[in-house]
Amino acid sequence: TNYVHHRKIVRDGDAYTITDDVEGADRFAVRWRLAPEFDWRITSHGIVESRVPDGETVRVSLHCDQSDDWHMVLSESWESLYYGERTLCPTIEVTHIEGRFTTKFEPTGY
What we know:
- The protein is mostly beta strands.
- The chain has strands spanning about 5-10, 15-35, 40-45, 45-50, 55-65, 70-80, 85-105.
- The mean pLDDT is about 85.
């Protein structure tokens, strides 16, 4: 399959915005592995949040510019930080049609 993927990462203080542009693919998936020590929850369509130990809330916002034809699940998947070891961690997986997809990681206050 021939497709083109461009990723742009912008930092604004403690917030990060990641923009993925995909051309030529019928569907694609974006996966974000989250910190396993936090209790992540879907709070609305496209929003995943967790309260961290200092009392602050961390929000992950997801948005597709071209359409609302995308699907998000919060599940567990394997990660391997060290050779020969694997652990389960919470994962956001989003699948959608071709286009631009934006993810923002940000603290939202206390």
